[in-house]
Amino acid sequence: MEKDMEQVMKKAEVLIEALPYIQKFNRKIIVVKYGGSAMSNEELQKNVIKDVTLLKLVGFKPIIVHGGGKEISRWVGKVGKEAKFINGLRVTDEETMEIAEMVLNKVNKSLVTMVEELGVKAVGVSGKDGGLLQVEKKYSDGQDIGYVGEITGVNPDILFDMLEKDYLPIIAPIGLDKDYHTYNINADDAACAIAKAVHAEKLAFLTDIEGLYKDINDKSTFISRLTASEAEGLIHDGYIGGGMLPKLNNCTSAIRNGVNRVHILDGRLAHCLLLEIFTNQGIGTAIVSDEEEK
Ligand SMILES: Nc1ncnc2c1ncn2[C@@H]1O[C@H](COP(=O)(O)OP(=O)(O)O)[C@@H](O)[C@H]1O
Ligand SMILES: CC(=O)N[C@@H](CCC(=O)OP(=O)(O)O)C(=O)O
């Protein structure tokens, strides 16, 4: 009986600890970039979706921008092609673009369904809808990488309308150029551009690693907090590779453009978002402005 009471009190303490954070973020926009690497199974996905839904229900305004890179590669493989990346970006020919759009739309609707199952209204769109993500062709170090879009403009009106009506927006990273051709956008780029356009309070990248390492092969080099300038230094000195490269570039860009807090979190860890937002635990890697560190 005493034990039961102790547990109940612990639960109350957890809720009380969350109170200042609930106040701080009340009605503030939080952009959650949910990467394909942390979508490996349905249970994992349901945990992430539960967290975001809870944020919505306690008065935050979350927006999900999702990836699906691993799933796209799986389908590209099924048609006998080899997935190819340059600097973390998928080389996207016409056929790959068609596959990527189909897969991302499928991922989008599956996330919408999970949110709706939890009793929250969600709307899934891509960057094509309402002129949300406008792009031009992107080159990687001068190389032609096909239908990969560089974001040139964001029209967040459709997002503000959804938030106003209390919908949870879920966005697939696809955009249109000025001639209405379809382009594949790196989901980290999409999340960052959207966070900037809606003046998000926070941008959280959920991925499949604990956070940032100076040397990915040496676990003792984990970085829990760094400034935008330090992050740029690591990129410049060649410490960062693969999919972490666009992610970290976007982290620094978001911080330099008015997003207050940027985090890289391990989406494989159950409830990592709740832990980061509602506790003093400080998990993952936080990227802060140079001024804040002074
Ligand atoms: N210095 C680094 N620190 C952390 N991860 C790194 C680093 N360099 C490369 N990576 C790689 O970046 C990956 C995360 O990017 P990515 O696979 O694109 O994830 P997502 O699908 O979530 O965008 C990690 O799994 C890791 O292998
Ligand atoms: C141009 C480009 O690379 N687009 C990405 C879009 C999906 C994505 O970014 O998914 P993750 O967040 O899971 O990596 C791709 O085709 O894989």
TrEMBL record:
GO terms for biological process: L-arginine biosynthetic process via ornithine. It is an enzyme of class 2 (transferase). GO terms for molecular function: acetylglutamate kinase activity; ATP binding. The record marks 33, 247 as: Transition state stabilizer. GO terms for cellular component: cytoplasm. Pathway: Amino-acid biosynthesis; L-arginine biosynthesis; N(2)-acetyl-L-ornithine from L-glutamate: step 2/4. Substrate binds at residues 68-69, 90, 184. It is found in: Cytoplasm. Pfam families: AA_kinase. It catalyses: N-acetyl-L-glutamate + ATP = N-acetyl-L-glutamyl 5-phosphate + ADP. CDD domains: AAK_NAGK-C (cd04250). Gene3D superfamilies: Acetylglutamate kinase-like (3.40.1160.10). Its EC number is 2.7.2.8. Keywords: Amino-acid biosynthesis, Arginine biosynthesis, ATP-binding, Cytoplasm, Kinase, Nucleotide-binding, Transferase. Residues 28-266 form the Aspartate/glutamate/uridylate kinase domain. NCBIfam families: argB. Catalyzes the ATP-dependent phosphorylation of N-acetyl-L-glutamate. Belongs to the acetylglutamate kinase family. ArgB subfamily. This is Acetylglutamate kinase. It comes from Waltera intestinalis.
